[in-house]
Amino acid sequence: MSAVPSLIAITLIAVVGMFDLVVYGGFVEGEDAIDVLNPAGTVTAEQARARAQTAELDDSSELPGRFVPNQGRQHVDFGESVEFCAEGEVSDQCYASNPPTSGLHLPSQRGVTLESGQRLDMPPNPGVYEFAVPRESIPHIQEHAGV
């Protein structure tokens, strides 16, 4: 019997969400809204790429957090260690942030044996690990929208 109220609540949330979607065309109003019925809208793929690049290069002090320039997405060999850059330095041979947000990273490979003897796919599968995951795998995870 306790599953029935949960099912009713989930159904109600879905109905309200769909009503909002149909009536308003999205869940956010104003010029920052994303039209979920037509996400591309009148923006071409080229314009979307240009906007994304502009946002990526925005080092405005008005934004929260700390700006870290994009360091690319080159691969390193397994077993190669990438150090952190010296304070204020940015190079494509070291990481400018901790944790790394871009730059040198391990390529995709299944069943990599780490120094600890643990086996791990690269990039690591989503989950919580009981052992250290190489920091050189982090930019590859982020490159594919992982956290």
Structural summary, described in words:
- This protein has 147 residues and is mainly α.
- The chain has 2 domains: 1-33, no CATH class; 66-147, no CATH class.
- Helix content is 27%, strand content 6%.
- It contains 3 helices and 2 strands.
- The chain has a two-stranded antiparallel sheet with strand order 1-2.
- The radius of gyration is 21 Å and the shape is globular.
- The two termini are 38 Å apart.
- Residues 19-28 have low confidence and may be disordered.
Distance between the termini: 38 Å
Structure class: mainly alpha
In round numbers, the mean pLDDT is 76
Q: What's the Cα radius of gyration?
A: 21 Å
Q: How much of the polypeptide forms β-strand, as a percent range?
A: 5-15%
What overall form do the CA principal axes indicate? Answer: globular
Would you report the number of β strands?
A: 2
Number of domains: 2
Report the helical percentage.
25-40%
The unreliable regions are 19-28
Pattern of helices and strands = HHEEH
Question: What can be said about the biggest beta sheet?
Answer: 2 strands, antiparallel
| Order of adjacent strands in the largest pleated sheet | 1-2
Number of helices: 3
SSE topology sketch:
Layout: H1 3-24, H2 45-56, E1 109-113, E2 119-122, H3 138-143
Antiparallel strand pairs: 1-2
Question: What's this, in brief?
Answer:
Helix content is 27%, strand content 6%. With 147 residues, it is mainly α.
List keywords for this structure.
147 residues; mainly alpha; 2 domains; two-stranded antiparallel ribbon; 3 helices; 2 strands; 27% helix
